[in-house]
Amino acid sequence: MPRPPSALLASVARLRGPRLQFPPADRRTFQTSASKMGVNVITHQPGTGATPTKGQTVTIEYTGFLKDTSQPDNKGKKFDSSVGRGDFVVKIGVGQVIRGWDEGVTQMKVGEKATLDISSDFGYGARGFTGHIPPNADLIFDVELKKVQ
């Protein structure tokens, strides 16, 4: 079999590039729940009310950010917020919202204020959300669980 042209070999070598380098882990201490397949709940103010279960309706106030690990709080560009627009009411755990919310909010209690750190596979994945969220973007949501019905 003939050898591939040197231009092709050079292109393949460029594609390989250097190995990925990961930034050092954030050493700050937070109270967090165990990571649940793509979402980590970081509690800032504990709640004392009910914990929602799948199929219940929840009332939430939230602000969403693109995750940016170069920022001290990992919050990059804000892409959405219910603040000033009115609380968000949704049936949780049944696929009406991204999977990171379905998994994360069901770990919270009414009155709790938390940050949901959501990997892209539990957010909008490879498709992203045109004009707002790029493909494969990790997300950060500041969330307050106000009510469960």
TrEMBL record:
Keyword Ribonucleoprotein carried by entry: no
Domain PPIase FKBP-type intervals: 55-149
UniProt xrefs under PROSITE patterns: FKBP_PPIASE
Pfam families linked: FKBP_C
Cellular component annotations (GO), alphabetically ordered: cytoplasm
Signal peptide coordinates: none
Enzyme class: isomerase
EC number from the UniProt entry: 5.2.1.8
Alphabetical keyword list: Isomerase, Rotamase
InterPro entries given in the database record: FKBP-type_PPIase (IPR050689), PPIase_dom_sf (IPR046357), PPIase_FKBP_dom (IPR001179)
Known catalytic reactions: [protein]-peptidylproline (omega=180) = [protein]-peptidylproline (omega=0)
A molecular function GO annotation: peptidyl-prolyl cis-trans isomerase activity
PANTHER family per UniProt: FK506-BINDING PROTEIN 1B (PTHR10516:SF447), PEPTIDYL-PROLYL CIS-TRANS ISOMERASE (PTHR10516)
Function: PPIases accelerate the folding of proteins. It catalyzes the cis-trans isomerization of proline imidic peptide bonds in oligopeptides.
Family per similarity comment: Belongs to the FKBP-type PPIase family. FKBP1 subfamily.
Name assigned to this protein: peptidylprolyl isomerase
Organism encoding this protein: Verticillium nonalfalfae
Organism classification: Eukaryota, Fungi, Dikarya, Ascomycota, Pezizomycotina
Gene: FPR1
